[in-house]
Design brief:
The complex is a heterodimer of chains A (145) and B (132).
Chain A (H helix, E strand, L loop, with lengths): L4 H23 L8 H19 L1 H7 L2 H24 L14 H32 L11
Chain B lengths: L2 H30 L3 H27 L3 H30 L11 H7 L1 H4 L5 H8 L1
Helix pairs in contact in B: 1-2, 2-3
The chains are: A mainly alpha (145), B mainly alpha (132).
């Protein structure tokens, strides 16, 4: 892996901007194309790119598998929790109007929280799929091909 | 339309049409070129020359707005990633032993001179050549 100098330098250069772009897509979901799902995939791509170039061991040092599994559940919890909050505020399940005094503001916050939950879950699931594929031991060694 | 606007319009259309031309040339090259390395060269022209000229032309069309900033960011991104992707593909092909079309006859002599080094990276084509 040491001889891939160009790939390693470019990957180090790109991982930060990719995460920044994921956050941009996440928070502009209600103004322009984008949203939680796309942002989650882009955020996961940063980790997958890092893992492809630097190896599975290093990316799992940054983003350990136990954290990936916790984040998968956390996103769904944020999504469902938003609905439960509006239930407790005397509205129907996932009725965002309950979250602020003005219904429009409430819907803005509600979409925001739900998209955040979607983004967290999707990024964690994408990284988990990559870990599951990459951690699988090869059936044949390189000499047997 | 004032003179400055006309100049910008003409420059942007030169860039857009030139970029489109490069994309078409690269696409034809990918289909028509004979071996892997020359096809890779044609494909990388689409990435670097074609798309960057198109982005420059669109920047001139958009004027000093937020769209221009976004287009410039996309252009810088493509300027970095296109050659990197081409380098990665070319490196993988070199390691797995793909040879240019003109080099097909040479491996025999190289293999005879240094048999230990040349043996691990033989491609299927070379094996066929040796049997015949």
């Amino acid at each position: 892996m040491r001889h891939h100098l160009i790939l390693r330098v470019i990957t180090k250069l790109l991982v930060g901007p990719i995460m920044l772009f994921a956050l941009y897509v996440q928070f502009h979901g209600d103004f322009s194309p984008g949203g939680g799902f796309q942002a989650g995939v882009i955020f996961a791509v940063a980790f997958i790119l890092y893992g492809i170039v630097f190896g599975l061991h290093k990316v799992q040092h940054v983003f350990p598998p136990w954290l990936v599994h916790k984040m998968m559940a956390l996103g769904a919890l944020i999504y469902a929790g938003t609905g439960v909050v509006s239930l407790f505020l005397n509205h129907t399940y996932l009725d965002y109007s309950a979250l602020a005094h003005h219904p429009e503001h409430g819907q803005h916050y509600g979409i925001f929280a739900v998209e955040l939950g979607v983004g967290v879950t999707v990024s964690a699931v994408m990284v988990a799929i990559y870990y599951a594929f990459a951690a699988r031991p090869p059936r044949l060694s390189d000499e047997e091909w | 339309m004032t003179g400055a606007e006309l100049i910008i319009e003409v420059l942007s259309w030169i860039a857009i049409v030139g970029g489109g031309l490069f994309v078409i040339i690269g696409s034809v090259g990918v289909v028509r070129f004979p071996d892997f390395w020359s096809r890779l060269h044609a494909a990388s022209i689409v990435d670097s020359a074609g798309v960057i000229l198109l982005v420059v032309g669109m920047c001139l069309q958009a004027g000093p707005t937020l769209i221009t900033v976004k287009l410039l960011i996309i252009g810088v991104f493509l300027f970095i990633t296109g050659p990197t992707a081409t380098h990665a593909v070319a490196n993988a092909a070199l390691v797995s032993g793909v040879l240019p079309l003109g080099e097909m006859k040479r491996p025999k002599t190289i293999a005879k001179k240094q048999p230990a080094k040349a043996a691990p990276v033989t491609s299927p084509r070379k094996k066929k050549a040796r049997k015949s």
